[in-house]
Amino acid sequence: MSEQHTYRVIVRGTWEGLTDEARARLLAEAAEHGLTSMRFTEGGSLSYEPSPLKHFSMRYVVVSDAADGEEMAGAIAEDRAETTLRELGYGFGDLKSTVTDLDTMKINFKPASRR
């Protein structure tokens, strides 16, 4: 059995070709998708600023084989984002992901005497 790693992935993109209905829905729901909505989840959390309504980000937790690496985790998250955005009827483009492997991330602990 292969080793599994947990990745945090931020998928960023731009809104493109939004219909009037989609734009109105995004603007109406903007308060639900601000800074306080930024959470890493398996299903993803969408965040964006309503003015200007141009960019968005989605945060995902992806668990996959460590041997597949960060590139695969990014591809999985981008695929999830595309699926979600299409299901919601939102036009988008230019998806890019940033991946952090939580299992290899170094944490610098400060000695108690330096706190």
Mind sketching the topology for me?
Elements: E1 4-15, H1 20-28, E2 45-48, E3 55-65, H2 69-88, E4 92-101
Antiparallel strand pairs: 1-3, 1-4, 2-3
InterPro entries: DUF6204
Pfam family, one: DUF6204
Describe the model.
With 115 residues, the chain is of the alpha+beta class. It has one domain (4-101): Mth169, Chain: A, CATH 3.30.1280. Helix content is 25%, strand content 32%. The chain has helices at residues 20-28, 69-88, and strands spanning 4-15, 45-48, 55-65, 92-101. It has a four-stranded antiparallel sheet with strand order 2-3-1-4, with helices on one face. Strand 2 and strand 3 form a beta hairpin. The mean pLDDT is 91. InterPro entries: DUF6204 (IPR045778). It holds the Pfam family DUF6204.
